[in-house]
Amino acid sequence: MKLNKPRPLTPLYRDNLILSPAEENDMPLVFLMGQDAWGAEYQTAEYLDICYQSEKYRSGIWLVLRNTNGTPISSAISYAIPGHNNSSWIGIGSLATELNYRKKGYGLSCLSMLIEGYEKQQTTKGFMLFQDVQTKIYSSAGFITAASMGYKELPPNLLLRTHENNHHETDLILKKTPSYF
Fold it and tell me: How many C-alpha atoms does 90 have within 13 Å on its Cβ side?
């Protein structure tokens, strides 16, 4: 299944934080937020080149959580996953927080604001992500494993967040689940 760019979100505000689409000049810092998780074996310049050349990274929209000073502190990428009858799901990937801001709730704020934005600003049936780092952030944001929803043949790290009454749509979208994003 092909991943697509979702429509951009308008900025969201919560407490002293703002979540908005990343600007081009944000991208080096956004990419480096996750280097220790996804590219620790590379030198910084090499890792940045890999990120800039990534088709996966160009296929989505990067969102950045900023503090009141405008400093990027957390980020994630989102993808539109076409669903049944023109509905869409949002795939979320590469959630990362700047090293000095970790363990302070900013990753969860970024994720929950992203979800809130898509639920309020667009017609979104559900969210999916692949958990490759063990953390409680995802369950705190309402994600559960696909296996616990009865989809035992799917990857064990596939997490979903959908409404209880959305089983038919979930069945349809999971028939052609995208590979890891």
Answer: 28
